[in-house]
Amino acid sequence: MCSCSTRCPLALLVERPSRPRRRDRRHATVEQHWDVVGTLSLPFLSIDRHDGAVELRQLESFVVVAEELHFGRAAARLQVSGPPLSQQIRRLEREVGATLFDRHTRAVALTPAGAAFLPRARRALAAADEATDAAREAAAGSTGSVRLGFAGPSSNAWLYRTARRFRAHRPRARLVLVTGRFSGELAEDLRADRVDAALIRTPVDDDGLVVHEIDRHRLVAALPEEHPLAGRDAIDLAELAHDPFVAYPARRMAVMRTPVDAACLHAGFLPRIEQEAPETHTLLSLVGAGVGVGLALEATAELRTPGVVLVPLTEPPEVPLALAWKADAENPVLAALLQAAGVGGADVRGVGPV
Question: Can you name the CATH fold of 144-214+320-347?
């Protein structure tokens, strides 16, 4: 117990009185210590006050009384009885340090301080409503952003369809595209939370990830237009055994290198790599320049690279395309992306609201 007078605020804090507290301005801040939930700081008020902690329900009551200029009608609107409303307004006046209403027997009017307080009180209530709506919308995935990584242009058609559906379903959310990474690198990006979802070629290390296959694409031969086999309807991969190859890099976790090497080995030869290309555009450009031949996905036909002819293989290998995300993903916008991608059921469960 504090050794000073019982009027000391510290004494009142240590030993809460059992009888009702006196409602004079000296004890206004003490009352706030017992009721601090739902308070809002109002730094824009320039009038003298104790600590500026004003409750939203006080502001609402003040605005209704200011609109009705009648405590009885205001109490009816607020669905409270008159005495508690009057007490709440008086408490508010103690908090701001000014009389907000002139009270007469038959009329209530705003004081100059009340008139100055009213528009700011309305803005504070509107801001509180906006903050609540913004938080709820973000939690529901209606706003915010989701980062989608993808490896190359062979997935452009899927991206176009999915992005349109996503925007139709979540017009105020953003789909952020991250490119320039190979599938294995994107799997690492997912685990490191650098992206929220990734469009990848499989197989990859899927530890901690959900990997949902969405399509399969066939490999085709990419030949310079002057190549002797460029005019054929289809070729056997073994016919390219003696050609130099342009291929994806082997050291950057490029999943596409694996099916290319496997297809060549299945055809009875190990490809002689003349040059590695960091991405599909460069690979096709090098083929068009006559550096060598290559294997690419049939979807790359949309690129229409000058000097390059894509020829089907008689036994074309297929490369899976998958959408991956972290198993413990928490971004609520991710669920909307998965829905736009046509992923549903157990795979989406636990990701967030859709």
Answer: D-Maltodextrin-Binding Protein; domain 2 (3.40.190)
